[in-house]
Amino acid sequence: MGVNSNRVEDFSSHGSGTLKVSTEIPMPAAEPMEIHNVCLPPKKTTFQKLKHRLSEIFFPDDPLYRFKKQTWCKKLVLGLQFLFPIFQWGPEYNLSLFRSDIISGLTIASLAIPQGISYAKLANLPPIVGLYSSFVPPLMYSVLGSSRHLAVGPVSIASLVMGTMLSESVSPVEEPILYLKLAFTATFFAGLFQASLGLLRLGFVIDFLSKATLVGFMAGAAVIVSLQQLKGLLGIVHFTGKMQIIPVMTSVFDHRKEWSWQTIVMGSSFLLFLLTARNISIRKPKLFWVSAAAPLTSVILSTLFVFCIKSKAHGISIIGHLQKGLNPPSSNMLYFNGQYLALAIKTGIVTGILSLTEGIAVGRTFASLKNYQVDGNKEMMAIGLMNMAGSCTSCYVTTGSFSRSAVNYNAGAQTAVSNIILATAVLVTLLFLMPLFYYTPNVILAAIIITAVIGLIDYQAAYKLWKVDKLDFLACVCSFFGVLFVSVPLGLAIAVGVSVFKILLHVTRPNTVLLGNIPRTQIYQSLNRYREASRVPSFLILAIESPIYFANSTYLQERVLRWIREEEERIKANHESTLKCVIIDMTAVTAIDTSGIEMLCELRKMLGKRSLQLVLVNPVGSVIEKLHKSEILESFGMNGFYLTVGEAVGDISASWKPQP
Fold it and tell me: Which residue from 55, 288, 426, 431 could staple onto 410, CB 3.0 to 4.6 Å apart?
């Protein structure tokens, strides 16, 4: 909603005494009030309008502005920088920046390696796939990504969703090869979907996952993930593959005989250690390295402990053999035909949306802290191409992780080189250190996952939603309980449905406001919000705060007629001046369609039969243009349109005075 410059000028120039308000009709000032015309916008062809509209939808940031008035050589350089941001900051890279990046890269590597192994288990994939996914994607992102602080790798939510959706149809235990093929294929389609959104500049699609939806979804997913880790913490061998809270808790207590006291003691001890380290870093951000190093420290200590007592550690399950070497190619494992193709596509789209939302949100968060901009569409293409390449190199869905990115930021990362350092550390691990993980207990991976996902439960954000917007809180609650009691994908779908319902509610039932005049000014504001505002005798002044479409035109007509009925009843009860004019402030009506125009015509005719005048104030350019083309301007007459409410009240009330 914009404010017309003439309205501002009227307010500043006429200041006080322009209109008298109380129980009298506002009188014109000593000097005659200047009445401004409501102008039509400049004429444009249909092609010009379409071009402008499409540019506003798909190119609101005008991404090619830097190419204007440049030589072909300069345009080539700018094109390379646009497609590959590494060419933008690469020429200015120096040793000082490298020192910061190598420290931050090694720091996040200490966190990424144990998390990569843990999250792969969460997705029901071999642990080695988690390390593969921490090698190729960071390298790809360092070349294509525009964020300096985003640390790329597997994340808990995408891992959980992939594991849940695929395991519902294919068992990772009974058909491990098919499951692996579907995971790589889902990753390919996730990347294809993400890159397509970026290429076609359709990033607004992910906006349907509102903040409220994500708060509830992530909290619910965090609870489910944590409960699933009871299998590892308690040493249970036979455990349910379902993700709902009731089957999980039933499985925990039905298999009490499988609980291992050795596993419980070790898991509880290291979980306490990890949570303590996390709490220290939260309370003292300068000690960020404590929580960053805690997972790798836990892996090393627990591995050494199990190795030393291996003859007596029969109750503690271990990771076992992990293959050494670089990522093997997996393009031949992509599953493009067969009965499970639809499952792979569906899983890819859902995990793609979730990982894209998380990655862009994290990137923008840290960009705002350092006062630089992250291009959302370029990020979509970077993350998408990264996942497509990853699917061909034995990786599953990856994106920017908040926990790793926070560590990266606090460790002083300056550029995306920190991702290259991370990939290098993972490379060394893959080539030389894999045998060292043989005795790593699975219970440690469970403790690492629980520690990581606990941070996703944001009760403060949920409380703020309750205070600010009850419908948003409802979406949050539906998402949370949907994940807990129905399923992860359906819980997300329920939350999106509630969010869409909220949008439809705002569109179909827009707000209308009764306006009054603030004394000694030409300002008209809501009578409910401003106690000093008062009604203007013989006028009913309303404001419509939304576009007028087919979906809300009937409601608006009924609501305006109700306002008129209530005002006439109030006037009759208080013995005030008869209602003569209804003014509708259309400043906030940003668009109108043919149904809306028809509604205004019908409303004018209905009021005319009741000897009431209908006046429209400050219609925006596109609205007045459509009203003009529909040839209804003439039916409203000379006194049917005004630029401001003050001008409308002053001019119409003056016309009612008997002429001398």
Answer: 288
> Which of 357, 410, 365 lies closest to 383, judged by CA?
357
Question: Which residues lie below 8 Å from residue 474, measured CB to CB, with a gap of 6+?
Answer: 498
SS3 content of the chain, % helix, strand, coil (to 5): 65, 5, 30
User: What is the structure's pLDDT at 28?
Assistant: 44
Measured at the alpha carbon of residue 650, what is the angle toward residues 644 and 652, in degrees to the nearest 5? 100
pLDDT at 638 over 80: no
**DSSP designation for 432:** I
Q: Decide: helix, strand or coil at residue 37.
A: coil
Of 440, 493, 156, give the one whose Cα is nearest residue 302.
440
Beta strands 539-544 and 512-517 are antiparallel
* E-assigned strand segments in 350-452: 399-400
The most distant pair of C-alpha atoms in the chain lies apart, rounded to whole Å, by 114
For the purposes of burial, counting CB atoms within 10 Å of the CB of 233, is it exposed (0-12), middle (13-18) or buried (19 or more)? buried
Distances in Å between the Cα of 11 and the Cα atoms of 8, 34, 231, 537, 543 are 5, 13, 70, 21, 19
Q: Report the pLDDT value the prediction gives residue 559, as an integer from 0 to 100.
A: 95
The predicted structure's pLDDT at residue 613 = 93
Cα distance between residue 26 and residue 163, in whole Å: 70
For residue 22, what is the enclosing H or E element? none
- Tell me the two tokens of residue 113: 């390696």
Q: Given this model, what pLDDT does residue 452 score?
A: 84
Report CA torsion sign: 648, 649, 654, 655: positive
Give the pair of three-digit tokens for residue 657: 């005075």
What is d(CA 105, CA 408) in angstroms, rounded to the nearest whole number?
A: 7
* The pLDDT value given to residue 10: 30
Q: Which long-range contacts (CB under 8 A, 24 or more apart) does 510-514 make?
A: 510/544, 510/545, 510/546, 510/552, 510/555, 510/556, 511/544, 511/545, 511/546, 512/542, 512/543, 512/544, 512/545, 512/556, 512/559, 512/560, 512/563, 513/542, 513/543, 513/545, 514/540, 514/541, 514/542, 514/563
pLDDT reported for residue 366: 87
Amino acid at 511: N
Tokens 């380290």 locate to 277
Tokens 């040793």 sit at which residue?
95
What is the rounded CA–CA span in Å between residue 138 and residue 353? 19
